[in-house]
Protein 1
Amino acid sequence: MTANSTVRNILFIMCDQLRRDYLGCYGHPRIRTPHIDALAGRGTRFTRCYVQAPVCGPSRMSTYTGRYVASHGATWNFVPLSVETPTLGDYLQKAGLRTAVVGKTHVVPNLGGMARLNIDPASAQGARLAQGGFEPYARHDGVITDAWLKRKPNAYNDYLRKSGYDAVNAWHEFAASGVDETGRVQSAWKLRNSRLKARVEERHSETAWSTDRAMDFIREQGDNPWCLHLSYIKPHWPYIAPAPYHDMYSEKDVAAPMRVDAEKVDAHPVYQAFRDHAESRAFSRNEVRNSVIPSYMGLISQVDDHIGRLTRFLEDAGRLKDTLIVFTSDHGDLLGDHWLGEKEMFYEPSVGVPLIMVDPSASKGGTWIHPSWKRSIYSLLSSTRLGSLKTISGWKASLSCRGCCGDAPPLREAAFSELDYAFYPARSALGLGPNEARAEMVCTERWKLILYAGFPPQLFDLRSDPAELRDLGRDPAFAPVRAELLERLTGWHAARRNRCHMADREVDAWLAHRTEPGGVEIGEW
Amino acid sequence: MTANSTVRNILFIMCDQLRRDYLGCYGHPRIRTPHIDALAGRGTRFTRCYVQAPVCGPSRMSTYTGRYVASHGATWNFVPLSVETPTLGDYLQKAGLRTAVVGKTHVVPNLGGMARLNIDPASAQGARLAQGGFEPYARHDGVITDAWLKRKPNAYNDYLRKSGYDAVNAWHEFAASGVDETGRVQSAWKLRNSRLKARVEERHSETAWSTDRAMDFIREQGDNPWCLHLSYIKPHWPYIAPAPYHDMYSEKDVAAPMRVDAEKVDAHPVYQAFRDHAESRAFSRNEVRNSVIPSYMGLISQVDDHIGRLTRFLEDAGRLKDTLIVFTSDHGDLLGDHWLGEKEMFYEPSVGVPLIMVDPSASKGGTWIHPSWKRSIYSLLSSTRLGSLKTISGWKASLSCRGCCGDAPPLREAAFSELDYAFYPARSALGLGPNEARAEMVCTERWKLILYAGFPPQLFDLRSDPAELRDLGRDPAFAPVRAELLERLTGWHAARRNRCHMADREVDAWLAHRTEPGGVEIGEW
């Protein structure tokens, strides 16, 4: 790698449900992630990257479209993405990069929109739209129930069946199941079974298979430029790891949960409703955490080993010198912190993600962003406006001068994120209609305000209370802080871009046109 | 008309730039509008209807799509409308109503979206999308410059040429021009020429032609159900009326402007920038008002006469008894009030419009809204949540139980409107970028707050100051009022629906599905 490197390819790695603090380079005291740590060492590690929504689908749609959730409208996992909205794939393919996905995207096409536009979902056009602009080199959206499998083929399930795993739903029965002490096959849907060894061989596991497919793609491309979205499904549930990762960690490696009994007293109604969810009740028990977290950590170390394998492969292929590597996650995992499971809520372990970028051309003093990737990369970068910059001093300038649409946005002072919880039992418990279950977060260097439609806000002082154990949302002493943050949120609402079908240069042209000779003469005497 | 009438058709009349208080039934002391007043007498007159944007394009797109501007994204006149967004035409055509437009829609299709979706703009599909769902029975978007005429055919211009008006741009040279005392042809682009008689014969004028086309359409339909959007271009500028309307009114009929010198002292920066526009400087002069306003009034009385003619036609054809009539406007006209011309600003003469509905089935105790028109009619109705109801007591219940998407929205307590002023000289004067020129209004029974991104707000007390002459936006005494209105605005932002590609019933189905046997089991031990 020389100072003259030119970036031609993008390897965009996304983990699923990987929380920010479960990597060595983000300070986890026990986990072993040497290869990801090495990426961070060579590149830039953003310490405070936030996702635009702490839920798979909307977070991913924000990354793929470069828009906030309120703009792309795919507010939850199975809410369709507009077929008219350009994605990362559109931008990059136009620029000559073959742009493909291995793994998960969660893109659900808007069949209603296709019908209105007379686009046959079975046509080449329809198929392209169904992929959100990515060529589905080896797509899947995670482990499947038997019912879903009947509706939709699944590349990884097919692979397992061809590799000798004999079951219709081989993914579930081998990769997501284990054998207990009595010799019975047990599904990892039950958290009690997370501690078991997955029935799949490591070399046939989701992570290994995805990495192999990534190498196939890169090999196939030769010297032709590409963007590969390598989208690992792990460490997302069902939490179960193949050998040797299933017992790499044990109870003694499980960090104490960030939770105090005081959180249950006079609790915020929405927080309380989420705490009543099955997964929250489960993860409130140490027995559950001790079964799940060692597997969760094993799955992360497994991803790390495959990233090491992939890095060596890139080096051997001569691709390290011309490939921008981005590593991130779509959201975190609460794992029992705050007496909660899953994600959704805006606590740091849920809404905070790792973000690492390795740019082989960075030694030239700046970081290369493919012009066509502006909007999408911007959605990553803009979600990091709090990003403390570890290594490359050129980043700041780079962020300022190469942002969205050719403009020069400054590094932002606040992060925003959105939640549509209409799809959760919490909504029923609170008696809310399908359009009343909304929440938004604004987070600055020090403060985090969460606004719930119809309920009081939550407020946390991240400086004095980094674990977010003390909700100041209803404390009269903090009314001025809340007012200031509310103003930021309102300013963000007011400034959100919605003029999506006209470029800024056209706006300027119209403004110039107003006074053009022979044009419309408004208000002339 | 009997109590057993069933509504089968919709006549949706929209004027362009007709301010609310320039009709007899809305209290104008001099104007003669007996036929529109008669509609109000038979139907429901909404006293405080507000448009979602005080600019033609975005206001119309809100009406046609049933969405606020932030949702449909067509924030100004020539900003394309998403091709994926269903419109009134989609809903009604699906329900078997032939849905057509005579006159203006201002729909600009998203050619970029069509390109992405491989839709040829010249195809039948492309043509349909270019019309926003309306069959273009006799569409035009208003008087045209010579340059525009070369790009796009124009039905009314063609008609004039066929009727013997000999000029390439016959619309401009005959219908929008007059002959001065020296015998010279003068364009009504210049406000000094508004006082002249238009060179077109009344029976060939825009308003007469549009009414004739409306009758043709209705006649053609016979007993088949229809929705006709009769979209008069008048009284929009160029302000010039044919005989006998050109001298029906004179200076003595011109109401005194609502403006005081105090408005110029310590003026709000955005207001000041709009006051510096050419049209504002012009309308600040009484000479201009006295030339323009008599013609403006004449054009309104002309529309009124044709509505009378159309009403008689409907009666003769037996259509009055089964046709819902809606009469409104896309925004108003400042005409020198507050030292301003045009619209854009959120003063009542600009953002307030008339709305009258005549429902022949209303005597049954309620008002009929075609189920397929829910979203669009709702955009009209929801913009009237302040509507005092004049005649039909059933309206309130009707509004509550037949609103958008089958829900039961209550009558609202506040109206909201939006402005993207990136396209105006005011933006340049203020040194703003193309995405920084934003304003929003929230208006309650008593108060109107206008928020400008990057500037202080404006506040008016409509109870003590109905003419909006005293801006309380920076008065410390009114900080609590502003805070309360800001909270409403924030609540509206947070609650704006953006999950547009999934119906509420599907959301409920997903919520039910979560706990379905054999489904995904999250967080089970």
Protein 2
Amino acid sequence: MGLQIHRTVEHRPESRIDEAMGVLKQRFGDRLSTSESVREQHGKGEDHHPVVPPDGVFFAESTEEVAEAVKICAEYKMPVIPFGTGTSLEGHVAALHGGLTIDLTRMDAVLEVNAEDLDCRVQPGVTRKQLNEYLRDTGLFFPIDPGADASIGGMTATRASGTNAVRYGTMRENVLGLTVVTADGRIVKTAQRARKSSAGYDLTRLFVGSEGTLGVITEITLRLYGIPESIVSALCAYPSLEAAVNTVIETIQLGVPVSRIEIADEVQMKATNDYSGTDLPVAPMLWFEFHGTEAGTTEQAEMVKAISDEWGGGDFQWTASAEERAKLWQARHDAAYAAKNIRKGAEVWATDVCVPISRLAECIVETQNDIRENNLIAPIVGHVGDGNFHLVLIADQDDADEMARANAVNERLVHRAIAMEGTCTGEHGIGMGKMDFLIAEHGEAVSLMRLIKKALDPENIMNPGKILRV
Amino acid sequence: MGLQIHRTVEHRPESRIDEAMGVLKQRFGDRLSTSESVREQHGKGEDHHPVVPPDGVFFAESTEEVAEAVKICAEYKMPVIPFGTGTSLEGHVAALHGGLTIDLTRMDAVLEVNAEDLDCRVQPGVTRKQLNEYLRDTGLFFPIDPGADASIGGMTATRASGTNAVRYGTMRENVLGLTVVTADGRIVKTAQRARKSSAGYDLTRLFVGSEGTLGVITEITLRLYGIPESIVSALCAYPSLEAAVNTVIETIQLGVPVSRIEIADEVQMKATNDYSGTDLPVAPMLWFEFHGTEAGTTEQAEMVKAISDEWGGGDFQWTASAEERAKLWQARHDAAYAAKNIRKGAEVWATDVCVPISRLAECIVETQNDIRENNLIAPIVGHVGDGNFHLVLIADQDDADEMARANAVNERLVHRAIAMEGTCTGEHGIGMGKMDFLIAEHGEAVSLMRLIKKALDPENIMNPGKILRV
């Protein structure tokens, strides 16, 4: 953790990067940057991995320019790394073999909004907040909220989700189609704008979650939703994690169309009180949000309150006022800052597993014990309606023993989740950090992924060293 | 249309089918059938394509047996065609290059139901009705309903959907994971049981809709849903197609979580009255279904009634009684029989396009005109909430001129849908019938599909001649 800079990049012998850089420079001039600060800024996400800067950063302004740049890179076998807001968490943007980072933040136009069809088409550099700001007057919104104000391109590439996924799904369900630049620089549209289709292989879903290893995403068509007439939020403390999780299971099984259910454990709640000066119970806590008509959200809140009471949930405060809702969610949104605040100056390491909800309480409790036994600090938060949770591991990078214990806790967490039929990553992706875990989770299936990678990127120039070893 | 039997199958020179058949016979004995009637029965779906029987039909009883059979076929380069209930509509099961049809109907076990996690794992031969029968005591159900009592394996392979997709999604959204036998006979699991994952390429979605061309699906993990407390249905006639479609658009845009919205045009309604002896208005008609709490479904029905009134909708009958609901839906379920009844003995040809909903009225009206101008009979029904509709083309196979006109109408329909940013197939798939339309729709993207096909099935033994020419 901390800012290690790996200045010596492991260049591949076949890469003719200097020649490629010359051609790119001639073509793109000042929009190809080789400044040290720009390169370093593009060599790392918001993660615990080291900085590995690329040879150059190209600020692209159109799909055609991306295609042109990729064609040049392909000719000289120079790696290509797509870059959005740099908020990824598993070393996705590290230029492990050098190469060209294509910064897509200047491609930030909302290209069309089809209000009647509840969809829109955007460039990859549009962020989710920017999109929702743009949509405000239409009465529509885009619900996927991974926390960070990430770019839609990056969210697509990592198959992001977050707090609203329990109702609205993840990027997997909400991307209708893509324009991608392939590894040989072709421009390909993966789907038309129909809501559903049985026309051939699902290329859209193949590129969603491909983390830049199959091509560069340059346009995204998204599903939109009407802004609900009524939004009601609630916050409730539980006597135990099991009680909180059982409340969630019953809520979902009863078909209450809850939009958000978030969990935090007592360690997180203490950190939150310390950080925010709040006086919330230091106990497992659930946040709920209900979207619908006024009658509908009232009914949903009442149903969940009844379930919550059964499981010994405390005072079930619910509110439809926008101001009070914002206050209520603040504690959840501040979770990461609160965690960082536990030990000032320490970097944090966000883990990310997802298990079937029936195994969630068991998985969290075993993990809490492991954290305690290893004398670590790691508050837990999660998108509990989907069975997805994160440890915020706080460890000092200069303390080799603490780092080793943190590593071991994460490794056991992942294997625990896999043993419970869960996944090594619910929403952060594989990047460079979880390639061994991908193999542990998928086994033989990884060989099919490798065949696909080799078919679509035979020279392995697209974000090499991520997801798969080829 | 009708039962043309292509007895001379176009065998590929490299296939050593006789040798393979000998080895298969020795291994599987009586469960490898070469009887003419069994082979013919497996050479055609419920479509307008000719019968092309395979060389043999193997009734598999386990994933391991499927793997063994595929390994033998791979060794002798013998084509493999997976077969469920035979209800496909685009020639998916025709043995165009001979080969072995693997009948999966004996693999019809529900392997596990995880009620707390709202999921289950089934073998591919389980039909949707059989699954829902099995689930009845759990309070859960599987919503995808393509009309036919298709097998879950076949529904997965064609990315099926049907009447409930507007609320619950298609097979794309409802398959959590698969076990597949690859073209070289390996057994691969595509995903764990977590609700969401960002772990590598989305192999699950790649096999959903692959129509047996990438492997044989031998287990499917599905999402389930709680049976709603209240189900309310309604039926309403409209002064025009545009009025009906505008009612739908506004309903969806308002976020009313309607479960089904089905349309039929006046031609279909006349056929329905003639067939069922009903006295329904001969006008564009919408069926609605609402799922939720009692208060919720009442509210939904009232909201839709208000919208419907605005667009001149007629008497908006709605009912929560199971018996009356069944009666009300009967007319919709009988649509195909009613269409067949228009000209007795004629085969029918179900077309299938899907467009953005804002273009739906225009697409249907232009198509109605085309049908009329070409002096054809083709009632229209559709899953209008998704923009998906079908003509039920009625043409006499022995009348070359009528067949040519029917073909031309279908071709224009597909190109009309594509021009409106729609798809050549919303739910039936490509099979052998729409390969040119796939190219018209996807263009350059088809070359990526071809690369994937070649990577996963280099000898082209998996259902050759479907989806793609390789």
Protein 3
Amino acid sequence: MPAKTLRSIFIAATSLACLVAAASAFAADPLPSWNDGASKKAIMTFVAKTTERNSPDFVAPDNRIATFDNDGTLWAEQPMYSQLLFALDRVKVLAPKHPEWKDKEPFASLLKGDVKGALAGGEPAIGAIVMTTHAGMTTDEFDKIVTDWIATARHPVTKRPYTEMVYQPMLELLSYLRANGFKTFIVSGGGIDFMRPWAAKTYGIPPDQVVGSSGKLKLDVVDGKPVLVKLPEVNFIDDKAGKPIGIQQHIGQRPTAAFGNSDGDQQMLEWTTAGSGARFALIVHHDDAKREWAYDRTSHIGMLDKAWDEAVAKGWTVVSMKDDWRAIYPQERK
Amino acid sequence: MPAKTLRSIFIAATSLACLVAAASAFAADPLPSWNDGASKKAIMTFVAKTTERNSPDFVAPDNRIATFDNDGTLWAEQPMYSQLLFALDRVKVLAPKHPEWKDKEPFASLLKGDVKGALAGGEPAIGAIVMTTHAGMTTDEFDKIVTDWIATARHPVTKRPYTEMVYQPMLELLSYLRANGFKTFIVSGGGIDFMRPWAAKTYGIPPDQVVGSSGKLKLDVVDGKPVLVKLPEVNFIDDKAGKPIGIQQHIGQRPTAAFGNSDGDQQMLEWTTAGSGARFALIVHHDDAKREWAYDRTSHIGMLDKAWDEAVAKGWTVVSMKDDWRAIYPQERK
């Protein structure tokens, strides 16, 4: 085929694709799983005023940064953080190589099926479980472990894959923001290496746009090839005051909009809204015991107390899962 | 204007823009400042084979990651790293507030104009200068200091702005890779907060795609507003073995292609090429004493010794600035 013909075909095809894209920009409701109400209106008003060129609140595309907490904001965090359930599964897999765990807490309780007893040891117990299951292998090995687990593990209550325990309205919100030129990031207290293997497929967020807690790494050489070994030592905790720090270190810009669900997100929302120009802060309130879980001020997981008071005082958007969301999970999409 | 008419106009305009974009994909040489030769050919062959859909070396767009060292790879690093020259300028600005510096090294020598004497103190002296000039203010304040400096400071030899001391062939390479779906990152030993304020404008690389060395941060509240304070404490050194670690922590994927110029980049190039599938490693060799500087095995700045030997042994692309580059700086563009 002559180059000129090829070129004409290529141009025609590209133009057609663009035409379709342009037409779909005028398509129906971008947030179909959100009920009409104050929350949906606040989101759409914010996007319109920051993206319309003649708006006094216009934000240049390069500065449109949106950060999302993960646990409880993008996916379910009850009855326990998924990463902790992953760690518990790993303890069972690793147990045959650790006969000493039979008499050593928190592992002994865990292997007897007594999760509550294992976690009674508090932070040190959780730390021991996390370090044992998240260190001592290369980054490539850990990536494969997580990829295999997420493909096969099931949520203890719903028996569905964890990647189906994500919130359909938030998936729509991520797409809607990206379609309007926002760069979307995860900023989570969860492990950065635990989220990256599935975040792109699940949320459309590439590995370099995932910010999270991390352990230290060491460059080593095995069989003449460089490897990165995960050390049992904390590098960074991306929670509470750590979130603005993680944002600065990874993203290097203050977000235009931030989305969370608990007191762990309070500093991220404060940091975001303290910037000049139009800013947006949103909190997902878990108030739907029927379709999901209902918890807030007194919950050990995802406690929403001080951040809720601040949201009310400052006029941040507080989403009621019960009233604002038509569907919770993708499979309920109407 | 009826919505339907508006829609038609919008679609027509978008299609036209797309048509122009499609046509320009067939435009002239994307690397006009590169002489025809082995280096240019190696780059273009790599890009073709990783981006043509039916190629056995095809790399999915999501995995096209290209990392670039900064000093000596994207901009000049002689007669001294620009960030050190920035720090020396800052010492002069801050001196009136520090009368004690008159008798305290390395500041005393520095204020007498004796840069060599100041740096005779080695790493501790450089550390003292960097910490004094890069900490003790908020991230917003430091951003402004760097933005003001880069807009006004002049290179000591050429008297040109530092942002004009960038390499035209590398600017073309960055654009060429991006046009072919690669996400471009800086991975530099330089300070992350020093590079971010001007990297977007100069290189087209946004703040979140800049990886570098950093100090620790602290979230504080001043006048009821959160601020991030730069502490005089090292957080991370993104050099040598630190580069693969910085890549993993920030990018979370092994690069497809990596570009450097010194032994400080060796581990990044090794890490990149140790991945499966097609990988590309390139070293810029400073061998043009007439148009730039000539230095390699014995230079204190940008020493290229072990990485050069490895490049030759492994067949990495070694660019001769003298022979491969038609122009060095943007203003010499033919």
